[in-house]
Amino acid sequence: MLKAGDVILAEVQFTDTPETKTRPCVVLFEELGNIIVAGITSNIDMRGIALTKKEGAIKDSVIKLNYIFTISSQAIQKVLFPLSAEKKRIIFTELVKRLNAFNQ
After folding, report:
1. What is the pLDDT of residues 9-36, one digit of tens each?
2. Dihedral pair phi/psi, residue 3, rounded to 5°
């Protein structure tokens, strides 16, 4: 059973190509068999929330909240590690801020 904050390895399809690639993602939530995730990149120059080796990443990375998508459970290869409660709070606080910006 997946939980919010689980870092997973999954086959994801990018918007600019029909191909899929294996990429790390953070589970945001799961509902009715749909898993909503945020992509993770090792390009630390990109904007997002830092994810360090100390936290469990293979290399210092960035959680990209501008890259959110839905995957099925069949796309998941494995669960890598859970994020700390503090990191989950940071992610969800930032998501709420971004969603609230649309209401202004």
Report:
1. 999 877 677 788 899 999 999 998 899 9
2. -130, 155
Q: Which two tokens stand for residue 31?
A: 């509902």
Taking the C-alpha atoms of residue 99 and residue 21, their distance in angstroms, rounded to an integer, is 28
pLDDT beneath 50: ranges in the chain: none
DSSP 15-83: TT-S-EEEEEEEEEEEETTEEEEEEEES-TTSSSEEE-GGGT-SS-EEEEEEEEEEEEGGGEEEEEEEP
Count CB neighbours of 16 within 10 A: 6
The span from the CA of 57 to the CA of 40, in Å, is 10
User: Structural domains in the chain?
Assistant: 6-101 (2.30.30.110)
Rounded Cα gap, residues 31 and 47, in angstroms: 27
The answer to whether the CB of 48 falls within 8 A of the CB of 64 is yes
DSSP character at residue 93? H
